[in-house]
Amino acid sequence: MEDKKPRAMTRREIRKADRATAVRLSGADKGFNLVIDSFLWITLIVISIPMWSTITLSFRPNTFLGSYFDGMFLAPWKWSLAAYKALLGNRGFLLAFSNSFKILALGVSSALLLTIPLAYVMSIKSLPGHKVLVMIVLIPYIFNVGIIPSYLLVAKLGLTNHLAAVFIPTAVGTYNCLIMRSFFEGIPNELKESARIDGCSEIRVLISIVLPLSKAIIMTIGLYYGVSFWNDFFHAMLYLTDNKLQPLPILLRNILMASGMNEYVEASAFGEAPIEAIKAASVFMSAIPMIIAYPMIQKYFTKGTLLGSVKG
User: Which of 12, 53, 232, 310 has the most CB atoms around its CB within 10 Å?
Assistant: First the structure.
């Protein structure tokens, strides 16, 4: 006799089996989940309202006469692109955006180029002087030298009025370096030892073995550095006095603080767009690069942070 093939389950039978094997939550668990869901919804609403208000304000036409609340619910076909056209058509805004992008690209590249080798060296516990190296890295993190010595050092190196002054002093973040070191320590030593036995140098081990396995932590630390450099306001204000080198946060600060657009930029410099709409459009456009970058790195973010924080 031929063996009978097992009969495929119907959808109704599958749903019934799922209900039979489903974990039944207690009343306390259901209450806890309800509290968490409510908190997340409230947080989403609190975040969404200011964001939506800024977006609608940036599209508000100059002829709008309603209240601030009415503007939040202005019909999309009544929106105006005057503020965005004014910003994109203004040479100062485009130059500031370009400077911020240069700082972002050069800053993240130089920071990773310096942080990765340092974190890898710190992860090798058999290295002579390992504890001394760790202390050298930790001491500046614990004891901050202050603004004046940092400024004198940057000025002595001739970096003032150079974009490098914004990202070079903070190119190696101790916290980021420690997270990356913990991640490198979690990579099995057998992989590294096998490469060393085959005659690979430490640089070859780092490039061929460690880095291909560290994509998550590299993307995570790169995101940390990217957000820091893109939003860096203090170092740019401290070291860049040339208006042609000012990044977007400085221009945004000048726009927001200018009374009637007269302290730094004339109203005519941005056309006939409403002043409040220009301010809102500036804030929104400054956040666009991070809004675009975060979804692409999100899948690495949690994994890199958790794996890099397991070891102390």
Answer: 232
